[in-house]
Amino acid sequence: MVTLATDAKRDFDGYLARPPSGTAAPGIVVLSEMFGLNGPMRAVADGYASRGFAALVPNLFWRSEVTRGLEYEGPDRELAWARLKALDLDAVSADVQTAVTWLRRQPFCTGKVAGIGFCGGGRIAFLAAARTDIDAAASLYGLGISSHLGEAGTIRCPLQIHYGMQDQHVPREEVEAVTKGVQGRPTIEVFLYPEAGHSFFNPVRPTFDAAAAKLAAERIDRMLAAL
């Protein structure tokens, strides 16, 4: 765990995973699901670190009353929804910039930083592309991106948006609105997975789709290779 910033009440913290080589590496900021900085999000960072990236999972909920990572089922699930709905997206966008700047300045980072966001973090990945100086971003099954399509014109970095067409949390109308809203933007790509549902990239979730996850990972790797 690392401290990214401090205010009068508490620290803005995050989980850092570094590649074993010890040489400077491109950075990845992992933008978590509504469940926050939990084991599966750490595993994403660990996986990218093992492949040669410096991966940081900022605690997007550090300002919340409950700051810890949450479980997917049980009482934590309702808490996760409530915490996500209360999230200040303007403050979180600024937090992402803080995380990007912190990682970019570390001696073990090449200075290039991408973001990968899931679920609620997928929406934040879109905002990061629009509002921060991040070098690239990928949004997977992001919630509510259509509310921010007015900011698509500010996006200059590569942005990938991935949707499962069987997603029970992202309506087909949302997917269509986003696809239409970013059409013609040369740096933005939308990828659709006809048989995949929500959380198709997360191997511990019942909706994990190995084929869709593999294809999405390959597309994201293509983007990361350009860092």
Topology:
Layout: E1 2-6, E2 11-17, E3 25-31, H1 39-50, E4 54-58, H2 75-85, H3 89-104, E5 109-118, H4 120-131, E6 136-140, E7 159-164, H5 172-181, E8 188-193, H6 210-224
Parallel strand pairs: 3-4, 3-5, 5-6, 6-7, 7-8
Antiparallel strand pairs: 1-2, 2-4
Task: State the main characteristics.
single chain, 227 residues, alpha/beta, 33% helix, 22% strand
Describe the 3D structure.
- The chain has 227 residues and is an alpha/beta fold.
- It has a single domain, classed as Rossmann fold, CATH 3.40.50.1820.
- Helices cover 33% and strands 22% of the residues.
- It has helices spanning 39-50, 75-85, 89-104, 120-131, 172-181, 210-224; strands at residues 2-6, 11-17, 25-31, 54-58, 109-118, 136-140, 159-164, 188-193.
- The protein has an eight-stranded mixed β-sheet with strand order 1-2-4-3-5-6-7-8, sandwiched between helices.
- Helix 3 (89-104) crosses helix 4.
- The chain is globular and about 40 Å long.
